[in-house]
Amino acid sequence: MSAREQGDFKFVELGEEAVEQQSTKPGERLEEPVEAAGPAERGSDTQPEKPSDMNSLTNPHTVLVKREPIDKHKLKRFFVLRPGTIEQAIEDIQSTMDEKEDGSVQSVWLLAEVDHWNNEKERIVLLAENSLLICKYDFIMLSCEHIQRIPLNCIDRICHGEFTFPQKSLDKREGEGLRILWDRLREPTFLSRWNPFSGDFPFCTFTEHPVLEANEKFTKMCALDQFRDQLTQAAQRAHEKKPVPGKANGVLVLKQPILIETYVGLMSFIGNQNKLGYCLARGNMGF
Prior knowledge:
By secondary structure, the chain is of the alpha+beta class. Helices cover 41% and strands 22% of the residues. Strands 1, 2, 3, 4, 5, 6, 7, 8 and 9 form a nine-stranded mixed beta sheet that branches. Strand 2 (120-128) and strand 3 (131-138) form a beta hairpin. The longest helix is centred in the first third of the chain and has 21 residues, at 3-23. The protein is globular and about 55 Å long.
């Protein structure tokens, strides 16, 4: 190798080492990609995503279109929504009323009764001048099966609030309820509490019916707050009109949790999930 070629080789070798030393400096190599590529990449990533996020938050029609078919399909299963069914039920119940004992009908409500084992049951509630009638009606056969009559002047407490359970209970229920009590001196017995079919309780508990949002008509019939207000006023008038001897006149309205003393709740879970307490179209069971 000649002297000129050796010089060129050393120059190339020194030049590559200088480039490597410059590229390994901590400041220059890290700063260049952050300043040049950082803002551009952030702008390209965030700008196309913002319009889609804003549309999903501000456009309510995208949510309603997905949920409406499911809700309508479920609501069609309730026989109470069939045309003329609720009117026929009210007419049948009114035919069994005693005008002298109950008085004239003030309002009609469609609610769900919650028993002491947390089972939901479909009920028509008639608020009359002197009585509160809780009716079990078969919307499939269009027949009244049972009526519980409660004198309004015997109601002494109306409690409303969220449902609660014992601390070690596995059962649960969301939402608010309404409990009507008419004999504060009588407590349920031990056998009554543990009997799922017992009706010997001095109170009844209600919650909203599932068809609350079916249409404007049923929204008014299933409004629990309006039912509470009208019941309170009617009970106050009944106490003033016909007071009960030896009993404090007036109704006490309390906002407090509504306790349901169940611990396992397996039977209520199966029944409430399948809406066994409602008149529903169950579908074909044959093969």
